[in-house]
Amino acid sequence: MAVRTMVRRCLTLSLCMLMAGSALTATESLAADCDTVPIDVETTDYSLPFEMPSGLMPDPQFDGLPAQLEVHRGRPVYADKCPSVPNRAVVLVHGRSVTGPVAFDLRYPAPGGGTLSVQEDLARAGIDTFAPSLLGYGRSTRFARGLDDPGNASLAPFASNGVCPSPQGCDRTHNPIFPLDQQRTLLAANPLGGHRHTHSSDMRFANTDVWVRDIAQTIDDAITRAHPADDKVTLVGYSVGALRVGRALYTAKYPEVASKVDRVAFLAPFFGGPTEETPPPQGFVSFPLTLMERAQIVEGGRMASPEREAACTGYTVDGSGERPGRS
C-alpha cells in the first residue's frame, strides 16, 4: 500500500477517533429530518493579512512590514446539519519542503480509487480543516528583499583559511540540505545573467517562532470561521511541522496558543538537530534562500533503502510528484 494512502487513512481514522462527538442515531436522524454526515466538501483559498511584529524576524529590515498568510480550507457541507452534530476543526502544519495544500490536499489518484487528500477525507468525516502555507512558503509573503530576491540564494563558501575569495561575499551553512553556491549552480544563467549578486538580506529568513506566530493566527481564524466546540482546535504537525507545533505548545512562552488546542497529532515527526540558539558555525546559515529541484522533492519522498523499496512495492505512489498538488 502506498505511503500517502496509509498516511491519509491513518491520519483520518486517528483524528476522527480523537475528535468523535455525540451524533444522532439513524432513527433520530430520520425523525429530525437533518444531516448527521456531510453531503459534500467545499475548498477555498484565502489570505490573512498582518503586520510583521518588531523583533520577530531574524532580519530587522522586515519589522513592521505588511504581510499575509495563505490558508487552504476544506469545509464539510451539510444541507441541514443536525444540531447535535458538533463543529470540529483541525489546523494542519506542513513540513520543510512543500506548502499546506500540497501536503494535505493532494489531488492525485490513490491506488484503488479516491484521492490522496487528507483534507477531503477529514471534511467528509465532518471535520473543518485549515492548512496554512507558513511565511515564506507558497503564496504567503516572502518579501522583495527576502526570498523573492534571487540574489539571496547562497554564495560560494569561504576558503579553508577563512578568507572570502568573492567580491560579492561568501556564505556558511550548518546543514547540507542548505547547500552553498546555488547562485552559480542553479541561477547563474537565469535570472542572474552570469553574475553573482550580493545579498539584500544576509541571514536566515525565519525561525521557528516566526512560524509559531503563523500557527497562532491560523488557530484564531479557524475558531472564528468554524466555531468548534469549546472554541478549541486540533493541531497536526507533519514532518518538520512537528517542530513548529511543539514550539507553539511551549506553554511557558505561548500559553495563549495551548489554551486554544484540545488535541495534538504528530505525523512522521522530525525533532532534533541544530537550532538558531546553537553557537556558530553549526546553528545558522548566512543566507535566506535555498532552492530545490523537482527531482530532489520527488526522490526525497523515497525514505526507504533501495533494498526495502524493492521489497515494499508501492511505498511511494509513482508519478504523484509530477502533478500540481493544488485543487
Task: Give structural notes.
- This protein is α/β, with parallel strands linked by helices and 327 residues long.
- It has one domain (3-144, 206-277, 292-322): Rossmann fold.
- It is 27% helix and 15% strand.
- The protein has helices at residues 3-18, 26-32, 100-104, 118-124, 143-147, 182-185, 208-226, 241-248, 255-258, 294-300, 306-311; strands at 40-51, 66-77, 88-93, 127-133, 233-238, 261-267.
- The chain has a six-stranded mixed beta sheet, sandwiched between helices.
- Helix 7 (208-226) packs across helix 8.
- The longest helix has 19 residues, at 208-226.
- It is globular.
- Mean pLDDT is 84; it is low at 1-7, 21-31 and 323-327.
Oligomer: single chain
The percent of residues in helical segments reads 25-40%
Radius of gyration: 22 Å
Number of domains: 1
CATH topology: Rossmann fold
Low-pLDDT stretches: 1-7, 21-31, 323-327
Instruction: Give the CATH class.
Output: Alpha Beta
Number of helices: 11
Total DSSP E strands:
6
Structural class: alpha/beta
The geometry reads as: globular
Biggest sheet overview:
6 strands, mixed
CATH-defined architecture: 3-Layer(aba) Sandwich
The secondary-structure element order is HHEEEHHEHHHEHHEHH
